[in-house]
Structure formats: C-alpha cells, structure tokens
Design brief:
Elements lengths: L1 H12 L1 E10 L3 H24 L5 H4 L4 H5 L2 E12 L2 E10 L1 H10 L12 E8 L5 E2 L6 H12 L5 E2 L5 H6 L2 H5 L3 H10 L4 E10 L8 E8 L7 E7 L6 H16 L21 E8 L3 H12 L4 E9 L3 E8 L4 H10 L2 E5 L6 E6 H9 L1
Parallel strand pairs: 4-6, 4-7, 10-14
Antiparallel strand pairs: 1-3, 2-3, 4-5, 7-8, 8-9, 10-12, 11-12, 13-14
C-alpha cells in the first residue's frame, strides 16, 4: 500500500489541477477551443515550476503550444459554463511522465521535485574548538541559509522558525543519535518530506591558507548513513559572510537538481523506493534496426525508468529493464497494455522473454 501511494504521488505531480480559463471569441465553440489551448499552456507553466529548477525555467517557458500538446496525456473539464460567446471552465491536465522526461533530457534540463514536498534544513555550525550551534542566533551558518532562502521564494528548501517550540522539540544530541521520533515530529510541523542536516566547519588556515568550509549533508531517516561531504575553498577577497552566502547558494542549487540523488539521498521523483526494481529480459530481434525500434517503443512505456543493455546478437537482445511499479505482476499488466507479453524462459532461470503481442499473433496465424 505504501509503495502504491508513492507511485500515485509521482503520477499526481504530473497532473495539474484547477487551471481556470475564461475566453470570449466570435462564438462559443471557438471560445471553448481557445480555452483548451490556453489551459495547456498554463498547465505546462505550472508543471515546470514544480519539476524544474528556477535557473532552467527560462529555457523552456516559451515552448511552442504544439510541442506542449504532445506532452499531454489527457485532460478533464470541470465547472464548465457558457454564456453567449464566453466560455469558462476549470481544466485538470495530465502530462505523460515519460514524454516530459524525454523533453527535459533533450533540453539538458534536470528533473527536480519542488514545493509539493519541501525539504527541511537544519544548519549546524561547528567551531574549530568543537563547539556546535543550531538554534543559537549567533549561528552564522543559519544566517547564511536564512538569507539565501528568503531570496529564492520558489525554493523547495525551508528552514524551521527556530521558536521555543522548535528548541524544545529537537537539539543537537537528538540529531547525533538520529532520534527519528523527534526528527519526524519537527518535519511534520513544517509538512516536510525530508529533513537534511547541513553541518559546516570553517577553517581559514587549512592546506593552502585560503578559507575552507567543509560541509556534511546528511538525510535524517532510517537510512541516516546516507550523506554527502564536500569542501568549498574561498578567497581572501571575500568576507566570511560572503563566502558563507555563496556556499549556501551553491548547495541549494545542487539540492534542487539531481546532485544528492547521485549519492542515494532521496530528494526527488527519480529516487522512489520502486526505482531499484529490475527484470532480466531476452528479446527476439531480426536485426539491429529492429532492435532500435523495439528499444524506442519499450522506453516509452509508462513506469519503465531505465534500460541497461547486457548483450546483442543477430537475433536476440538481453537487457535489464528497471521499472517503477509496485510489483512484477502489476508491471506485466502495464506491458500487456502497451502490446507486450512477459513470459518466464524455461531454459534460462531468472530470465524473462519479452515478445510483442502482434508478433505472437502472427506466429499463431502462420
């Protein structure tokens, strides 16, 4: 059930609801068509605000309407009203997840998850003498995060208020001991999906003599050993505050792309619990051109996240197919809906045979 809920959450992100449009043209029919066209553009703009980092939005905000239409799987109309030549309605627009991913990949834009699932940041500052600060107003690391987040209103990164309730709810010792009950309670207060501890150690004498900030980023959950360590080197042309501010901005930018995903911290859509599922497949092919066509088709199937080619011969392709469904039986259903059957190979344990339903029917006919 939990896996099904997570998969539904991903799908829901690609459905933009309550897009209200009102259009007036020479007649009601044209007004309706104009409203539908505008709803697709508005829905696309809302979608990219959720799944694309702020720096990448300008690259695709002027995407042509016909290109946007190709990304749309379906739409629903609600609260439809016609008055004379005026048409107004609320549209619920569902985008094709795989097509959107391909669209972004072609534009070399990373897919991120924003706003719907904010990430709570706990900035701990460690002094050279070992003293640590979290909630203290003197914490310079906190101040840098507060300033950067306030400048970026669209960021999915949030800070706690640091009020009396927060101070009594969680302290540094709770974080060190990974007290998940207290950590989750604080995250619940801020409707945060993930809580990250971002610990900074500042040293202005290490190695080259230039100022250095050593940053450790750790996800606080049952997999609390998931962390990323990185060092930032500054210059003496910067003040300490400027160095802290530029470091935080760089970290925020990376958090809102796939940087953390690469070290197995689950901050976005592509790091769902289902992603690691895969099945070994044998696919009959006629030639290389046939294989490329099959590969293109199966990559477009919903819930296929990745294909890893293990080997190719003149008549067979062996691959690992990664999928996002709750279980293999459910995934087999989606494959059937897309025109493919999955059968266990009798002569090769753990390997499945993927065949086009059309090919099977042709074989039976012959």
């Amino acid at each position: 059930m939990a896996q099904e809920a997570e998969r539904k959450e991903v799908a829901d992100i690609f459905t933009v609801r309550d897009v209200y449009v009102e259009k007036t043209t020479e007649n009601a029919s044209d007004s309706r068509q104009a409203a539908i066209a505008e709803s697709e553009i508005l829905a696309f703009q809302k979608l990219i605000e959720l799944i694309v980092s702020d720096k990448d939005i300008p690259k695709i905000k002027d995407t042509p309407p016909d290109e946007i239409s190709r990304l749309i799987k379906s739409f629903e109309v609600d609260e439809e009203k016609i008055s004379g030549n005026t048409y107004k309605a609320a549209f619920h627009v569902s985008f094709n997840q795989n097509e959107v991913k391909k669209f972004l990949q072609k534009k070399e834009i990373a897919l991120v998850e924003k706003k719907n699932s904010p990430t709570l940041i706990l900035p701990i500052y460690s002094y050279v003498n070992g003293q640590q600060e979290l909630w203290e107003t003197s914490n310079p690391w906190w101040q840098a995060w507060s300033g950067a987040i306030s400048e970026n209103k669209n960021s999915s990164i949030i800070l706690p208020l640091g009020d009396i309730e927060d101070l009594s709810a969680l302290n540094i010792e709770d974080i060190k001991s990974s007290n998940l009950d207290k950590i989750n309670e604080l995250a619940k207060k801020y409707d945060a999906k993930d809580t990250l501890v971002v610990e900074a150690k500042f040293d202005d004498t290490k190695f080259t003599g230039k100022p250095i900030i050593e940053v450790s980023i750790r996800l606080l959950d049952k997999d609390s050993d998931n962390k990323k360590d990185v060092s930032y080197e500054g210059s003496y042309e910067q003040t300490k505050d400027e160095f802290f501010n530029s470091t935080v901005k760089d970290i925020i930018e990376k958090l809102e792309t796939d940087w953390i995903r690469k070290v197995e911290v689950k901050l976005d859509l592509d790091k769902q619990n289902n992603q690691g599922k895969s099945v070994a497949l044998s696919i009959p092919i006629k030639n290389l051109k046939d294989w490329l066509g099959i590969k293109s088709k199966i990559e477009s199937i919903d819930y296929v996240s990745k294909i890893e080619v293990l080997g190719l011969t003149s008549n067979e392709a062996k691959i690992n197919m990664f999928y996002e469904s709750a279980d293999l039986e459910e995934f087999k259903y989606y494959l059937t809906q897309s025109g493919y059957n999955l059968k266990q190979k009798s002569d090769e344990e753990g390997v499945w045979l993927l065949e086009s339903i059309t090919s099977e029917q042709e074989s039976v006919t012959q």
